[in-house]
Amino acid sequence: MSKLVGGCDDEDELAKLHSASRDWGFFQVWLIKYHVKIQVINHGVPDKVILKMKADIQEFFSRPLQEKMECAQLPSDIQGYGQAFVVSVEQKLDWGDMLYILAQPQDVRNMRFWPRVPSSFRATLIQYSIELEKLKGILLSSMARNLGLEPEKLLTLFEEGVQGVRMNYYPPCKQASKVIGISPHTDVVGLTLLTQVNEVQGLQIKKDGKWIPVDPVPGAFIVNVGDVIEIMSNGEYKSIEHRVVVNPEKERLSIAAFHNSNRNAVIGPLPDILSKEQKKRAPNYKSISYQEFLKLGQKATLEGKEKGLAHHLKIETEAAQ
After folding, report:
1. Which of 17, 164, 224, 245 has most Cβ atoms within 10 angstroms of its Cβ?
2. Beta partners for residue 206, in sequence order
């Protein structure tokens, strides 16, 4: 990452970021070496902020259930302590608990869902969310250059976008093959930045029809392209299906920060990409408003669709043609 900030624009590093975003859609970025996923170390987020966030979320999940329920989800609201994607009393639930909070910008915060214990939690999450906003900007700027865009063209679309932070706890299960931590899905956002709280493997991505485990690198952020970036790039970057499996012996904790475009953005292929290099390209996706996109995402969740909105918008466009 140090080669992508401060105006460095290292061509070799930009090419590696471009390849990972295009061919995998999931990457971890770190300083020294690269695998098929790029892990970000030297990402600029202070270690003390990350370590404090990890410590506070571990303490929260270790508290008695009665205390955690003070932040419980309310009907028709995903924020709070509970489980995600519960749409029916008859469905098989994911094997995990979560605490989901809207952290940025300030006007979306509902402090009713923010834990009071540990006492440092609120200040820690605010600082952590601010640092991730900076990292998001660096990544989007580099992606824009790789796509042949002026960085501001992409950054403006995500300025003041909602950042939701999902903190996950997956208890061990002796019959791990019979449960799933998070069911297969893609992320209905622009970018996701994931921190492993402990070094227990569980995240898997689907590539060429096979599930591939992601080995966490200590101190790194796992980044994945969401549906919004796939659509805006007209399919050049991919939003990849992923899931979480459960360990039979060890608990797993993680923190995922989801970064959305702003509420005035149009979700569709960017005009500058469609006309790149003076070549007129046909859009592969339908353009819709941010509000329409949110409604479509809610509908897809209720219907249990796994492949994400980029996939379904593309199918609808082809069907219309």
Report:
1. 224
2. 211
